Amino acid sequence: MHIYKREQIAAKVKLDSAALEAVEAGFAALGRDEVAMPPILSMNIAESNGEVDVKTAHIRGWLRFAVKISPGFFDNPALGLPSLNGLMLLFSAKTGVVDAVLFDEGYLTDIRTALAGAIAAKHLAREDAQRVAVIGAGVQAELQVAALRLVRDIREVHVHSRDASKAEAYAVHMRNQYGLTVTVHNSAAAACAEADIVVTTTPSREPVLRWSDLPKGVHVTAMGSDNPHKNELEPTILASADVLVVDRLSQSRALGELHHAPALQREVFELGSLIAEGRKARSSAEQITVCDLTGTGVQDTAIANYAARLLEEV
Amino acid sequence: MHIYKREQIAAKVKLDSAALEAVEAGFAALGRDEVAMPPILSMNIAESNGEVDVKTAHIRGWLRFAVKISPGFFDNPALGLPSLNGLMLLFSAKTGVVDAVLFDEGYLTDIRTALAGAIAAKHLAREDAQRVAVIGAGVQAELQVAALRLVRDIREVHVHSRDASKAEAYAVHMRNQYGLTVTVHNSAAAACAEADIVVTTTPSREPVLRWSDLPKGVHVTAMGSDNPHKNELEPTILASADVLVVDRLSQSRALGELHHAPALQREVFELGSLIAEGRKARSSAEQITVCDLTGTGVQDTAIANYAARLLEEV
């Protein structure tokens, strides 16, 4: 059995095309119905403002499956610790024996989450998309943009955050780190006005994006909501979008954006099905496409296998 | 972070009164409604005749909670490997940081499962119980009897197993290991005829015990069923017992004996509630008491904390 620490993992696994292909293969397998993926195990620890989620999936024919344990303890910053944490374990899919423990402290979750946003944009955004609006200014606000650069020629970032000082710091960092043109806006509407791609990356419990904020031809990825209380998109967006996609229907209904639009009657695609079928969901440059990402166990099994392969290379 | 292997854990954690008290404290907390315990995560891996279960629970006020991952791969014996496996992880209940990993390979599950049987008998069997009937001849057939010795003056074991040669081997082992009088029977009815306590320890999908097999005054613990397909007790037993107890109602209904008696209308106690309230459920020496155990996350959190305390002692 091999045990790997965050530093070792981060030295090998990067936001690059190979990692994107690994996660995309997981979505495609899901779309081909080749994946066993039970509902998420979720426990609240109210006394510490904490929660722990466990996700898993097995892709038929793969030699190993991952189980990921993700604690989120939201009073940690006051203790000088990050809120998010966790590890992934790889088990033999033939014997159930533990094969590797990846003490990634949430690093691989950050990566596979950002890559899912890139995969959504790859299949849904206009080919010529250059301008990204980002709502929120945390870790994913950076990583989503970094991952989008793998699939589109991103030039400009337009950011809005409730916390203006965080947005300013984000802008400085993104200019220095990626050489992007970054503009801070004082509203989501202003940030989105000329966007080709919008990514919402907040833990908001109230919509941060309205239908009226969205220009023609935009693609929207909402990646913040992962529990029943969180909600980033006004339900009108789900109803009015030309194309609506989710990572997993059952999860989006239970803890994603669909949870806040229970009466919605329309066609909803799963991202994996679009990939598996090679279907072009966007049929014109004017259409508005929307993808809700809740985070799936198949991404964890895909990225953990990918990480282990890199770590095991001699 | 500390990592412990099976040998280290088995050297410290024994089937003794201290371990029993630790698990009983977990049940009592559950009975006082002081436990967060989400439904079990369960995934099947059909291509390898395997499954993986994840259980967790947090006891309010405790410093650490456990997450247990239990793979069961039932073609393993043909490969020279045990079917059951797994590990427990202890996390800080304040920060979510991993504190210890117990690579116990299912050892602690065996222990806490046997102790739950002893705890059920402690609270439900007659004080003068001496004769145990055991249905099945596997690991739990031994450990349930060993654990019962902590709470009752067990003298005789009456065993029945579908596989007669396993029952004979079991009898030899139990005589040598524990100095017990052990008799092998060719039916469950014969094994139970004069029993004070009956324990069913099988993975059967058909009842192994009939109401007509049970003598007056007996206590029955059914610990084998832990998925919707398994079933050890004829539903009449659940309907006719004077006292019916389960470890967790929601679990017994979903994957225990209550799953096979959906129309049952009667009072059902949870074991933890009896303990928490100090209630004597048995009111006469003639009553028949029944307890269905499905295995709960609170037992895992209790035994993992207990094990870690012993392992951390200098």
From TrEMBL, chains A, B:
Pfam families: OCD_Mu_crystall (PF02423)
One cellular component (GO) term of this entry: cytoplasm
Recorded superkingdom: Bacteria
Name of the molecule in the record: Cyclodeaminase
Origin species: Pseudomonas leptonychotis
